[in-house]
Each structure stands twice: as C-alpha cells, then as structure tokens.
Amino acid sequence: MISRHRIGLILLGALVALGAPQAQAQSSWRVCRDVECLDQGWNDAQRRWWYTTTQGSRLLPLDWLVALEQPGDGQRAFLDRAYMEELGYIANPDPVNNPEGLPLGWVIDQDRSLSADLMCDTFPETCDALTMRKPWVGLTCSACHTNEITHQGRRLRIEGAPTLADFQRMEEDLLQSLKDTVADRTRFDRFARAVLGEDQSIDGRASLETQLGEQIAWQQALADKNAAPKVRYGHARLDAQGHILNKVALTVRDPDQITNVLADAPASYPHIWNTSQQEQLQWNGIATRMFKIRFLGESTELGALVRNTSEVIGVFAHIETDKFTVRRGYPSSARVRELVSLERQLESLQSPKWPEDMLGAIDWDLAARGREVFTRQIDGESCADCHSHMAPTDTTSPMATTMTPLADIGTDVFTTCNTFLHRSKPGQFGGQYVITEGARIDPVEDFTRMMLVNATIGAIWGKRGEVLGAILYEDDRPSGDRTESGLITEYLPGVTDEKKKADAQDCLTQDHTLLAYKARALNGIWATAPYLHNGSVPTLYDLLLPARMRNVATDLDAVLPEDAETRPEVFGVGSREFDPVKVGFVSDLEQNPFTFRARDEDGEPIPGNFNSGHDYGTAGLTEEDRRALLEYLKTL
C-alpha cells in the first residue's frame, strides 16, 4: 500500500470570507411552476441561484450572443428557445434572475476592472475596444448537470443529473454562425446594428469585424485541437477531459505545439449528488479530495476548488499562462469565490427518489428479490462489493468508491487512456515545477496533465486575494499487480486503427493509478441514463445484458449465440421521454435527434464507443433476475 502524502499549504493570501451565496432579488416566478421538482434538499431560491451564478466562463460577449443568428441563410436568433432546446439545453424563463432569457446554466460574467483585459495577445482588438470589460456569457455547473424527463405529458426537473445537451454541435454551430456573420455583408450589417446601436461608425464597425475575426481564429484553433473525425459525441456526451487538456495546451501560445491524442473519447456527464462525500471524482478518479479547512464558520474542501478551477479553464475561462509562472500566478477569469460557494451548495443536494406517482409504483416484493441478486456472489464477486449503499437523504457520510483497473472492468479504455497519454509541447510551462508530481515539466514535450495541474494551481494563486489557501497532495492509489496473459491474442478486436490498438495495449498493460474506472454508490442511478462512463448503453435493463464487443480477445473467449439478447449497438439519444420499464430514456431511432453507434457503417468497432465492460455475470442472469434487479435499482 502506497501511503498518501500531504503537501502543506502553498497558497497564503489575504484573509477573505468565502461566504455562502447571497440572497437574490425576490421574484413571483418559481422554478417549480411549469415543471415538477423532486425534493432533493434545495428550495426555490437555491435552485435559481445555482442556475445563474457565474464561475468565470466566457464564451461570447452578451450583446454579440443576443445579436447572433443561427448558421445558414435564415434569420433566427442563435438564442431562440426552440433551437436551444433542440440542442438539448433547458429553458430558464426567470424574468428577475435571467431577464435575457438565456438557457439554464448559461450565465453572465462581467469584470469592469483592468484585470478583465485577458489574453490580449490573442484578442488585441477586443482588449483595445474594452470589450473584455463588457458582460460576457459563459456556462456554469447547472448547464451540464441538470436534466428534465418527461412521461405521459408530465415534466420533471432533476438537479445534479447529466444533461442531454449536444455540446459538440453547439460549439460547431456557434463557430459557423460567427463565420457566416463575417462572410455575409447583409448579415454583418444586422449584427453590427444590433451590437453597436447608435454608436455606428466606420471605425466602430471595422473594429467589431476585427474582433469577430479574433474570436473565429481562437475558436477554430480549439475546434482543430478537439477534432474527433471518427466519433460524434451527440447528445448527453462530451470528451471533457480532452477539451480541458487541449485548452491548456493552446494557452502556451507555442506555434509548433502538438497534441498526440484527439478529443475522441466522449463520456457521459456524471451525476453530481454526493460529490463532496467521495474520495475520487470523475470517471477515472483523476480528481481527488484533499481536506477541508474551516474559516469564519464555513468549511472549504480544497480538492473541490482545484477540480472546479480546472473545469472552468476547460469551459471557456480566459487564462494567461504564456507570460507568467505558477509562483507568480496566472491571471484568469475564474471566479474563485463563486466556485467555493457553488461547491458548498452542492454539498446539500440529495439524490433523487423514484417518483412513483409519475413513473409507476415500485413492486417492493420484487425489489426485495432484486436485492438478493445484487448481493449474490457470482464467481466470487457481487454488485454490492463495488457499489455501497447510500441513503438518498445522506449528504454527509463518506461514500465508499472502488477503482477497478481497465483490464478488469473491460469497458472502453479511451476516456482514461487518452488522459493518461495526452502530451504537448509545454512552451512557457517548460522547466516549471509541478508540486503534485514532485517533478519539473520537460521543456521539450511532456504529459499535458502536468501542465493542467500547473495551470490550475497558478490560476488559484493568481486569485489569492479571493481565497484563504489551497492544500494539495498526491494520492497514489493502490492497485494489484497485473501481468499479461499468454492467452491474449488481440487488443480492440475488429479495430483497424493501429495507433488506437497500440494505445489500448499500452494502457491495459501498465500499472498506474489513472488507468482505472470508479464505482460508487448507486443512489439515484435511475435518473442518469445513458449508462457506462461513455454513455454507450441506453437503459439499466440493457446494462444487465452481455455485450458482444470486447477490449481484448483471447483464445478462450466464449462466443455468444447469434440469438442471444445483448446490449444494443445502435440506439437513439436526445429524447426526454422516460421509459420506466427499462429505466432510461426512450431510445427508438425515430423518436431521437441523434443516433449512437458502437460500430461504423462497415461494422468496425469505434474506439471511444465500445459498449463492453461491467459484465459481471450478466450473461448468466435469468430474465427474472434482471427484472428483480432492475426493480431494486429503482429503490436506491
């Protein structure tokens, strides 16, 4: 067992009270009016605050986004409610706290001070025009971690559940809209009149056009880095870790910098209730808890601050790392105070209980038999060995989590493998010391995850006037010895991409704490479809079926009969209509805007979309066992 070491306080700043969120203006409008809300421990005011509090994300200036039109020849607004809902973003018609009518989780961020002028080498005209000091729109936690389900005409809001948004298409459409605005003079005229208003002038319009060009160039650079030519994310998935690492790689402004790994491992958005009770976070456990400090009657978990700061860096925060070092701190738009308050509110979020009045009564006798299946030992293991029990209202007890090595769980490897292998040229990061690694970043090329730690710590240190301190440690999680079996004949059987096969072999035969996936308590699991870390299984019933796909083919593999019921390899995603029988969203192709495919049109498995793994005796379950186990999972 490798011991955990704690590295002492490295951030000593001015003493600032990191208070709880302030009360917002009162409004007669209520969240739970047109939509039904479950009792998850939050009141209406807390919900409104969660939906509209900035974390420092900056996508576009507010007046630009309001004036922007959708891509194509039409004149429909980009923020048109029907269009946003088509992309999977939930409406938030709150006239007091959201008068601009932004989708839920799309929030305004504004800094009128000199510190707002960030990345001026990338956006020189934008800085000169003082556009950086205007209100900007970005995303906050609730955009990706709030969902709604519908059933027989009723609509139910679930806080902390994974979104059904198509983030990839949103980014692509936004970039295309910006390009169309510049290319079409009539369209640009409408845009300029809306943004500049009475301040129209030849110079003002020329400046605005130049600023648009700066934003297009930046977003195109991000798009090029995040390219995933063989994998569409679709609704409910995002390669968040790939996007974050690529964003960090781009901030060094090295024209020759490279990324060896594409952002082609989309993952299902995780549900975030009980977040503060877990030791490892994210599907691969890359984010770890540190410990809490108590100040002025409030507690702050330092690991959460590091995790959330890295997240906002990836989701549109402005940050400058190319002129500074971690010791000096990196100027950024990250809102440390708000990040702390958002995390504190999240600590009180309860997991959702199955709503019997909407989705049907639970058969409690059948559920009791399902619990027996859940605890039954199959080949020396049971579901309960990895998935501990947690009461829905328990928001304080430590939650047991189990990290299972890739070779053991058998699921798609690339969410964790890509993060592990991602390398870049470090630019200004080169030679800087990374405290959690106990090493310096190689000045020629190194793992991008080391640069992410550097950028995150530097961003927090750059905001030292807003936080008491951050405490970091390196957590070397133990894992069993693994040896390569002589029975292994092929990695990623059926895949022809030799680099992907080599990457999979590399990750499946190494012993490293990052090369694992997390199992946690399953409370509220019914509300988190689609399933597996990469969203490759539509319902809980389908998860209890065996998969035909495998990460590794061996000489002794049993071949499933042709007529065996197996996990679907093609299904629809994006509908909010819930299927209470299979427990997940309705996945018929004709009822969904996006089609998930585990194989391409030639039948070749798609790395990143494997629906294999977590196959602990599912082939041996009877139909009665599956139905009983499914009923039990509804009760958690």
Structure description:
The structure is a single chain. The chain has 636 residues and is an alpha+beta fold. The chain has a domain at 58-139 and 167-232. 30% of the residues lie in helices and 13% in strands. The chain is built from 20 helices and 26 strands. The strands form 12 sheets. It has a 3-stranded mixed beta sheet. A 3-stranded antiparallel beta sheet has the order 3-5-4. Strands 1-19 form a two-stranded antiparallel sheet. A hairpin with a 4-residue loop joins strand 24 (578-579) and strand 25. Helix 6 (167-183) crosses helix 7. Keywords: Heme, Iron, Metal-binding, Oxidoreductase, Peroxidase, Signal. Residues 599-618 are annotated as: Disordered. GO terms for molecular function: peroxidase activity. Residues 1-25 form the signal peptide. Residues 365-636 form the Cytochrome c domain.
